[in-house]
Amino acid sequence: MCQKLDLVTFFNNIGDSIKDTWDNAVDDVKDGWQDFKDNIRDEVDQKITDFLLDRVFPDSSDEFAKNINGLFDRAREGRQTGANSTAQTIEIMDIFNGVNVDALCGNCLKFVDELKGIDDTSDSSDDDPVEQRDTFMDLFDIICKAYVNSTICTEAVRTFVGQIYDSIIIPSVNSTYACQRLAMCPYNINNDTLNPYVQEILQDKPTTNIPTATRRSTYQVMHMTDLHIDFSYQEGSWAQCGGYQCCRADSGAPPNASQAAGYWGTLATCDIPARTYDQFLKFVSNNFNLSFILWTGDNIDHEVWRQTQATQTEPTNNATQYLNQYFPNTTIYPMFGNHEGFFSDQYDTVGNESDWLKSELGEMWQNWFDAESLNEFETYSYYSRVNTERNLKVISLDTQTCDTLNFYLIRESSVDPLNQLEWLRQELLDAESNNQTVFIMGHIPPGSLNCDPQWSARFRALADRFTNIIRGQFYGHTHNDQFQIVRSFADESPVGVIYVSPSLTTYTSLYPSFRIFEVDADTNQVVDYQQYRLNLTKWNENTNGDIEWDLAYTFLEEYNLTNTSFASFDSLAERIKSDEATSETYAFNFNSGGQNSDNLIQRSIDYFYCSAKYSEPHEVMNCLGLDPALTNLEYFASQYVPGLLPSPENSN
Length: 652
Fold this sequence. Notes:
Elements: H1 6-25, H2 29-56, H3 62-76, H4 86-96, H5 101-116, H6 129-147, H7 153-168, H8 175-181, H9 191-202, E1 218-224, H10 274-287, E2 290-295, H11 314-326, E3 331-334, H12 355-365, H13 371-380, E4 383-387, E5 392-396, H14 420-433, E6 437-441, H15 453-465, E7 470-475, E8 482-487, E9 494-500, E10 513-520, E11 526-533, H16 536-539, E12 550-554, H17 555-558, H18 566-578, H19 580-590, H20 602-613, H21 617-623, H22 631-644
Parallel strand pairs: 1-2, 2-3, 5-6, 6-7, 7-9
Antiparallel strand pairs: 1-10, 4-5, 8-9, 10-11, 11-12
């Protein structure tokens, strides 16, 4: 049998220390479930800390060890600010910027080589492949059971971790590339291939000539994103349950009324009930005359451990039926998000293992497509459709091709999965030749830290080249209210704006939100937008009848701007950095009014500024003073370390 690496030893140690306790407690967990989980977590928390310091980062500095310990200590003392807190996000990123990445990468390469049977120092080639895979699954099953209900671990582990394992052991998969995808090895953009691509794309860029909006008349477009409808939401359940998904029957009873799930939703680690989605559509249909709707996905709840492929698209189907009920005659442009795949984030860009998703969604949405766009979607997963009334081409992208959590991409040898960027280029050339303007929509923003840097840089080149005709870019995914500026390769001047709309879900501690864009009818320029939020404090006390969303702000008025030009957004980014009032306003809106934005620390302001100023992950990292090669690691750490941190004690 093969030698066990540090990662395997880590999981085995956890398993040895908790398995007996687990087996003995399963029969009577109802009586002491929370105490049991707390005891298990206390033990695992310390082992994770030791693991990070002694095994994953054994050669890192004393300062790194001090910072990791401090992070866990603050969480234990109850000063954890929440998984979506910008202050915590940037703190974790700053800490992990100090890791010894060479040691981390070396350990990963050894681990992957051993699994593939090409490590000369082990005898893994003699292993039974099935037994090795089962052992790999069992190890992750143990740690899963330490954190969540045992009944949902095995299927989740064998689906998600199995996908990683099956990708890693493919003989043609390069070990270094696999470890880069797993956020263990530095990931640098290959400028030897990028620079010629950029030069080719920009060689025929015309002189910039963007018309000024006339504002003689405007039309309205709604952008809705990240619905995350929870059909198992239960009013009165424990909203602060300490798990990955609360506000459900199995969350338990709250210790006091202040921690109970509200009727319409809750500012916690919870998604929204279906009735809130229904009321949202009713409110919009009664109050706005929409020209069309942009719907950028993530419709299923966050309890990924319970999901199955057979039921994965049911929430999207329900959401579609609601839309058809309230907007039977409105044009709708849909796209799926990272959560629509099974397992979450997984989408096959090499084979046909994700054809089921295209087929099921194509059938649901066929009334919103014409024959050509339906065929494009069901064949490629992306599509374009021309709105003849507006002389506007809407291009809908499958951003799973850039999702760094999509471990199918471990198998991908191309920097342009599904040939989507080349298709986008041809679509833009076609629009240019036909004097059409363009909206681009998708789920994951190209500037998100979990969008592949190679893909993002190439997308930026296309946005730069076609700045004259791209009138708007619309994304979701982050759940936050933000924007990102696309910059010219020639002189760093602003050549585009990416609008990132906040989520309808409350996950995590966000007020439900949607956005209405005002668009100039003559030029298809976005001239303003209205941001709406649901006051849960008010409406959770009014459970009878219809509810209403409040106008949170209009963009130009909120930020004291006269227009939505690229230069105006650039000046706003600078004010976020330099003006305290602007930074606090932006921070408040960034979190949809759900978190305190007073007395921001400088690093939080840095994060807001950098993520607005640039639209490439590596550029954002450079701006933050962090190592761009660690972008994947930094994103993984900022998203998942909070889930490992001990939860603060629940107050009474």
